[in-house]
Amino acid sequence: MSSREQTSSTARASGVEALRVVSAIGIIFFHAGATGASVGYAGLPCFLVVSVAVAARRSPEDAREGWLGQQLRRRADRLLLPWLFWCAVYGAARCLDAGLSGEGLFDWLSPEMLLFGTWIHLWYLPFAFLATMVASVPAIGGLARRAHGGALFLMLACVAMPLSEWIIHHEPVEPMPQWAFALPSALVGLALAGVAPGDPRGRRMLLACVGVAMLVAALLDIRWGDGRVGIPYAVGIPAAAFAWAIPGSAGPRLRGLADLTYGVYLVHPLIGSPLSRLGLSPDAVAIASVPLSFWSAWMLRRTPLGRFS
């Protein structure tokens, strides 16, 4: 999701950049509860698949001296520091809301927020930090770039999807449902890492991802029938694999929009939450939030705070 972390040719392929833009819009629709919200949540697996695949492709060939510290500093700067900043922003927003409603300023705090932050969508940043750090390990990234490694990680994703549904079905404390939901995405990202974006060989992996996603999603819906994992993965994994296989580089306008998606993800609840309190329908909230979130992210990047978006 972080554009500055994805500046290589691996990440500037037209299909990947378009996927990031569409995924950001889909997540806005999901959080607004708009029509097609479950399909919109497919944007989350798409984001994570791309982030992990890029991290694995850029992992060092061997564990040279200093690689761990370099990776930790780089990813902390792009994921953990923004997480801390936005935790402060959303914490202040919650305190303001509590004060206006006559509640205790800190009644909303809970111990599990140490794992995901002061607003639930912030769970993505620490999870993405861990997932991309693992993908950056030379042994794992090297395995992912081999053909048999891709098949191995795809099989592990097949196992992880029903496990994810089982964990979510038992309603553990947050952010365990979100982390369980995201785990198969990380494994699919490792599976795709063996093929460069736009490479014709990626079509085989595309067909494999489509078939696996559809089969597992169908089985999940047969078993539990709520579609919390099945629908987003049935849409998101084929979409990510298809986008990964599209050849060609993104143009400047598409790159510009894609560069805003990280900020859009981070800022959109500050847009959608007040709009929903105005009595607007969920569809209206989502439609209004899209341009306002992109504009807000664009404005933020032109300030010193842009490093956090």
Give the tags:
globular; mainly alpha; 309 residues
How would a textbook summarize the main sheet? none
Q: How many domains in all?
A: 1
Count of individual beta strands: 0
Structural classification? mainly alpha
- Strand percentage: under 5%
Overall pLDDT score: 85
Q: List the secondary-structure elements in sequence, H or E.
A: HHHHHHHHHHHHHH
| Overall radius of gyration | 19 Å
Residue stretches low in confidence (pLDDT < 50, at least 5 long) are: 3-9
Shape: globular
Helix content: over 70%
Number of helices: 14
What distance lies between the first and last C-alpha atoms, to the nearest angstrom?
Answer: 10 Å
Topology (elements, then pairings):
Blueprint: H1 14-32, H2 37-40, H3 43-57, H4 67-100, H5 113-116, H6 124-136, H7 138-144, H8 147-169, H9 176-192, H10 202-223, H11 230-245, H12 252-259, H13 261-276, H14 282-300
Helix pairs in contact: 1-3, 1-11, 1-12, 1-13, 1-14, 3-6, 3-9, 3-11, 4-6, 6-9, 8-9, 8-10, 10-11, 13-14
How would you describe this protein?
The chain is mostly helical and 309 residues long. The protein has one domain. It has helices spanning 14-32, 37-40, 43-57, 67-100, 113-116, 124-136, 138-144, 147-169, 176-192, 202-223, 230-245, 252-259, 261-276, 282-300. α1 packs antiparallel against α11 and α1 packs across α14. The longest helix is centred in the N-terminal third of the chain and has 34 residues, at 67-100. The chain is globular, with a radius of gyration of 19 Å. It starts with 13 loop residues before the first helix and ends in a 9-residue tail after the last helix.
